[in-house]
Amino acid sequence: MEALRLRRPSHRGYRTLPSSYPGSSQQKKTIVFEAKGYYTINDIKSMIQLKEGIQSDQYTLVYGGKLLQDYRTLASLDIRTESTLYMIFNPRDVMPIFVKTPNGKIVKVEVKVLYTLRDVKAIVESFIGCPVADCRMIYAGNELQDCKTLAFYNIEENSTLEVLPSWIQIFIKTWNGKTITLDVARSNTVREVKDKIFCKVRVPVHFQSIVFSGKRLEDKWRLARYNIEKDSTLHMVLAW
Questions:
Q1: Which residues have C-beta within 8 Å of that of residue 119, sequence separation ≥ 6?
Q2: What is the pTM of this model?
């Protein structure tokens, strides 16, 4: 048996599978299921209905930026243990659009006209493995509201949207008691924060150790993983 998580951005797969689903007023919720490779997407939906009471015709499951067909097995979709599926509500006819991610990469994703921008962010997140819920989404020079649908903005097939970081200010307390401010995105890695610190105080990255809430932070992880938010204070100590 393996585990899947089902993550719901407003609502959220037994490989443990996390699944994610958007709802307008709820906070993100992750539910965990145990599944086997021969389970179909329809089997997973039946498990969701038993556990959450959500009818299978009310949503589509998304993984790797793709809408999952009910008859496909987890193995055929290469969904492995600890994979995260996302739940998107109000499906209609599928159309491709392009999304330019914060790192400049352009990805092609499948969407439906009644998806909200929050739904689109969840699909992009499932595709690139990077949190984008806090980012801004831009189309034709205008910032889009998470609660609005693609249809509301007249976004059509092959349109290109852009995801831009939402900057927050955090504080870094250095080893000598000095406090500096940094503008960062929650999608920044700890290593990227160290680079910013170097630009401010000229302490080489390999001499820096960053601590938050009593925990030493790893270079490879993003700030969002550590629940670092606006006005958080991190401590920089020297790692000799």
A1: 9, 22, 88, 89, 111
A2: 0.52
